[in-house]
Amino acid sequence: MDFETFDHQVALADFPPGVRVTAHPQGAGWTLRAANADGTSGLDLLLTDGAADMYGEGPAFSAALARLRRAAVEGLPAVQPDGTLRSLVFVRD
């Protein structure tokens, strides 16, 4: 997915104010990260290439962003003591 399309999908997902969402290519997929601007909380979601292939790239990214948005609305988990974020994985069924 190109970053312009990703940014558009993020805008449509309507994340709460102060939550920044980014995408980072990672091996066989993408890590999508939702984090508070102050850096104290956040969540990573690995969207595998298999899931994107199975559901289609656009729908898979949309579903992953919906999951991250739900977490952001409910309250993102605190950053771990070692500085990492909690992670979820969206894989092919």
Helix content: 25-40%
Strand content: 25-35%
Overall geometry: globular
What's the SSE pattern?
HEEEHHE
Question: How are strands sequenced across the largest beta sheet?
Answer: 1-2-3-4
Low-confidence stretches: none
Short descriptors:
alpha+beta, 29% strand, 4-stranded mixed β-sheet, 93 residues, 3 helices
Task: Give an overview in words.
The protein is α+β, with helices and mostly antiparallel strands and 93 residues long. It is 39% helix and 29% strand. The protein has three helices and four strands. It has a four-stranded mixed beta sheet.
TL;DR?
The protein is an alpha+beta fold.
SSE diagram, text form:
Layout: H1 3-13, E1 19-25, E2 29-36, E3 42-48, H2 49-55, H3 57-74, E4 86-90
Parallel strand pairs: 3-4
Antiparallel strand pairs: 1-2, 2-3
Helix pairs in contact: 1-3, 2-3
